[in-house]
Design goal:
- The complex is a heterodimer of chains A (201) and B (461).
- Chain A is an all-alpha fold.
- Chain A is built from eight helices and no strands.
- Chain A is elongated, with a radius of gyration of 21 Å.
- Chain A starts with a helix and ends in a 6-residue tail after the last helix.
- Classes of the chains: A mainly alpha (201), B mainly beta (461).
Chain lengths: 201, 461
């Protein structure tokens, strides 16, 4: 178990700093776009679902999803050198390596999703707080999560099929990232074996 | 110990993710059935509506449904049940089903050819008129309709109930109906042809029939037949000659067969050759409406006979008269405003008359009152209404007129009458659309089929 956790930490260390930066940038850009669009729109006519669409925060989220994918697939540099060596000393089977990589990728995607849910949720709450009370009621926030496609995808509420769809989407992205990363690693290892004899793997 | 510390690496993110989703869901989901009902008293005492229950259905994008039960009274009690449907439950505007006889008001050559009537007389008339009209003028001329055809050219349509709220136009053999309903064109009936040569190219601008026939048909469906009749008066008030119809004027019965075995949608076959007159009427009686009770046992035939409106109750299977009842004078609408199995309401827009069934099964007038307590109407109750009668009080709901800045509303008006007149009227708005501007149309919650709330009086112990 120890070596498994060590390996997990190893992958985490290689990706987490960039991932954290990605989350911060995503949040900052979304907040800015939302705030900027809200200020630009005619106050009388702005409706929350329209505002979400017009602020284009859905594209920021898509960009973050793709950035995370690239990060998970290609952050090979961190494996080179000392960490690569540590990894080889861990004597892990290929199956375990793949499993931990997949689990870590899935974690990253679910964290990204959760951060997006909260950013969207708090932006909506902030907007409703600023809006004239005559235009909102006790169901406005919930209805907004059905009225706007992007919000509905991030938070499908009663739509069980929606939850299933989103979870499958993120799991398959994580799986695909893990496959690519594993392949890259294996190829490098084979090359490495030719150059320097290695104890394990 | 170290083991546990390492497991935290996995547990903490899992818990954090779960917490984010749970907190957000916990904040959003409880809103789903928080339908607030805005309540405005327009007249009287809301306590008069105590004991009433109105169920208001609202939907959003055919997937979210709210059934809001409102118990009006001094302090209205509101309860909402919410439902989400994975499959879109597409709602349509309820389409009318029925047997329909209609005729066009404007005849042209191609139409006459299509129904097999010689078009030469009409072509000649148009050519004559064209020759008479000078360049730069417009000329109209009247021709007797008899000059062009002998019998009224009537088109027949039957719309059967199909899936929920949809109707199905069924093919019928029009020749059988044309042979059956041979109604000679009245000599007074005229067609006005107008020729215009003020512009190039010159053209016939209208061929309008004054009057026209038929103007109104009414029909009901039982499980195996359609009962229908038509108003035997032309648009300008002359009785048509119905003596050539087998059995004369009256109620006609058209049997049909319904098959549902092949798939879920029903399939209908009309037995046109069995079309018959099942209840003969004096040709001076005007049929105004025909209704059927929910058990399909009784036909309600509303007629205008001389200066009076009458109701004839008929047994559907034998056409035996169960009751004849003089309802009112002609000033009242002869068609019921609302029809239920055990009561019906007539109105002329100012007064209302309620007839209810007594224990012996006969109908009797039980309420007569004016709609509004003042000369000027306080409000407008539309023709589309739902009603409930508890033997003493009549409750009416009708769609609420839209208020200023309101484009779509789920609001309705509720009025309560008893023998002393209007007791209470109020507006109830289950607010789901606080921003009801036209550009927000996609975001509106609406009543499926624009249906009115169902109302009923609670049964008193």
């Amino acid at each position: 178990m120890r070596k498994h956790m060590a390996f997990f930490r190893l992958i985490a260390k290689s990706v987490l700093p960039a991932f954290a930066a990605c989350l911060v940038v995503m949040t900052a850009v979304e907040v800015f776009l939302f705030w900027h669009t809200a200020g630009r729109m005619d106050f009388e006519k702005r409706m929350l679902p329209d505002l979400i669409d017009e602020s284009n925060i859905s594209f920021v989220f898509i960009a973050a999803v793709l950035a995370l994918y690239l990060l998970l697939c290609l952050s090979r540099d961190s494996f080179a050198g000392r960490q690569d060596y540590t990894l080889r000393r861990l004597t892990l089977r290929g199956r375990s390596i793949f499993f931990w990589q997949f689990l870590f990728s899935a974690f990253c995607y679910f964290i990204l999703w959760a951060v997006q849910v909260w950013v969207a949720f708090f932006l909506c709450r902030w907007f409703l707080h600023e809006t004239d009370a005559a235009w909102i009621n006790g169901q406005t926030l919930m209805l907004t999560f059905y009225q706007n496609d992007f919000l509905h995808h991030t938070m499908p509420l009663s739509d069980t099929m929606g939850w299933f769809r989103e979870i499958m989407l993120f799991l398959s992205m994580a799986f695909s990232a893990a496959v690519i990363r594993y392949n890259i690693m294996m190829r490098r290892n084979r090359r490495g074996e030719e150059e320097t004899p290695c104890e394990n793997i | 110990m170290k083991h546990k510390g390492q497991l935290l690496w996995i547990l903490v993110p899992v818990l954090m993710i779960a917490a984010v989703f749970l907190v957000t869901l916990g904040s959003l989901l409880p809103q789903r059935n928080q339908v607030a009902v805005e309540h405005t008293v327009l007249y009287g005492d809301p306590a008069a509506a105590e004991g009433l229950e109105a169920v208001c259905r609202t939907a959003f994008q055919d997937q979210l449904f709210w059934d809001t039960t409102i118990r009006p009274g001094a302090s209205p009690d509101v309860e909402t049940s919410y439902d989400f449907s994975f499959k879109k439950q597409v709602s349509y505007y309820a389409q009318d089903c029925g047997f329909n006889m209609s005729s066009t008001c404007s005849y042209d050559v191609s139409y006459l050819e299509s129904v097999g009537v010689p078009s030469q007389p009409l072509e000649d008339a148009i050519a004559d008129l064209e020759a008479e009209t000078e360049i730069g003028e417009t000329k109209s001329r009247r021709y007797p309709l008899q000059q062009f055809f002998d019998n009224y050219l009537i088109e027949y349509y039957i719309y059967f109930p199909y899936t929920q709220n949809r109707s199905l136009l069924v093919d019928i053999d029009e020749a059988v109906f044309s042979d059956f309903f041979r109604i000679p064109v009245l000599p007074e009936e005229q067609i006005v042809i107008t020729y215009d040569k003020t512009d190039y190219p010159s053209e016939v601008i209208s061929k309008e029939v004054e009057g026209g026939f038929p103007t109104r048909t009414c029909s009901v469906f039982t499980d195996d037949a359609i009962y229908f009749s038509f108003d035997n008066v032309t648009g300008d008030g002359r009785y048509v000659d119905t003596s050539l119809i087998p059995g004369g004027y009256g109620i006609y019965r058209l049997p049909y067969a319904k098959e549902t075995s092949s798939g879920s949608s029903p399939y209908y076959t009309v037995q046109s050759e069995e079309l018959s007159n099942c209840f003969s009427l004096d040709p001076t009686v005007r049929v105004c409406d025909l209704r059927l009770d929910s058990r399909q046992e009784t036909l309600f035939l509303y007629t205008q006979e001389g200066e009076k409106n009458w109701l004839t109750l008929l047994r559907t299977d034998t056409m035996e008269i169960l009751q004849r009842l003089c309802l009112s004078g002609n000033e009242m609408d002869a068609s019921p405003w609302y029809q239920a199995d055990d009561f019906f309401v007539l109105s002329d827009g100012y007064e209302l008359l309620l007839f209810a069934k007594k224990e012996d099964g006969r109908f009797e007038k039980q309420l007569e009152t004016s709609l509004s307590p003042s000369e000027e109407p306080l409000f407008h109750l539309s023709y589309k209404a739902t009603m409930a009668w508890d033997g003493r009080q009549l409750a009416i709901t009708s769609a609420s007129p839209k208020e200023e800045n309101e484009w779509v509303t789920t609001a309705f008006i509720l009025a309560v009458y008893d023998e002393s007149g209007l007791r209470y009227i109020g507006r109830y708005d289950p607010i789901l659309n606080p921003t009801a501007r036209p550009e927000d149309f996609n975001y509106f919650c609406q009543s499926p089929d624009n249906a009115l709330p169902e109302i009923r009086w609670e049964v008193k112990p």
